[in-house]
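$ ./design --mode recover --in tokens.txt
reading tokens...
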């Protein structure tokens, strides 16, 4: 959360002249409800089922940039679908930057707690090894504006040998 997946995914898609999809936005469009509302009504489990279905579908489509939510990596099915579907970029961000970048909006239900910094630290400890497992490329986003991150992704993608 706050790594810049939604922001950078959109910019990257523009550079690559490809369509952009964001699994959170896709879930919101399909349900007509926002993410916090889905968490309230269906619980995190319900949200995760919807997320898995969207990722399974979109990761099979050719020629698009897909941003997932930060928790998608927790399910092995999602990791497999993403790995099989294309190149995976992990936008690495320090917890300090995550705190800063997520402090302004309230649309992340997991951070609507008394101590969001502790939640982000705990999630990072659990998730970082999984992001690294699934990623073809790891990009550092701290102290780098989105446009610079996009340029680095483009050059790192070019340097990858074809699968
Ligand atoms: N590299 C960056 N440097 C500074 N701010 C950023 C960067 N990437 C994203 N942001 C800002 O952080 C906030 C969260 O970004 P977002 O794209 O929603 O992250 P994610 O989808 O990974 O949760 C947004 O306000 C965005 O403008
Ligand atoms: O990390 C997570 O578990 C989540 C991240 C969110 O997306 P972003 O990573 O785009 O903020 C969104 O999918 C949901 O609030 C859960
Ligand atoms: Mg996002």
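writing sequence...
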């Amino acid at each position: 959360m706050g790594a810049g997946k939604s922001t950078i995914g959109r910019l990257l898609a523009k550079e690559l002249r490809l369509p952009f999809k964001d699994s959170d936005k896709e879930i919101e469009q399909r349900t007509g409800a926002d993410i916090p509302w889905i968490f309230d009504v269906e619980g995190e489990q319900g949200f995760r089922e919807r997320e898995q279905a969207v990722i399974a579908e979109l990761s099979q489509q050719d020629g698009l940039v897909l941003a997932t939510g930060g928790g998608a990596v927790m399910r092995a099915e999602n990791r497999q679908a993403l790995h099989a579907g294309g190149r995976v970029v992990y936008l690495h961000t320090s917890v300090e930057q995550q705190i800063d970048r997520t402090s302004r909006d309230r649309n992340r239900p997991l951070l609507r707690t008394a101590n969001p910094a502790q939640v982000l630290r705990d999630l990072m400890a659990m998730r970082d090894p999984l992001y690294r497992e699934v990623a073809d490329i790891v990009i550092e986003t701290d102290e780098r504006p989105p446009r610079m991150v996009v340029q680095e992704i483009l050059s790192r993608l070019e340097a990858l040998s074809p699968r």
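exit 0
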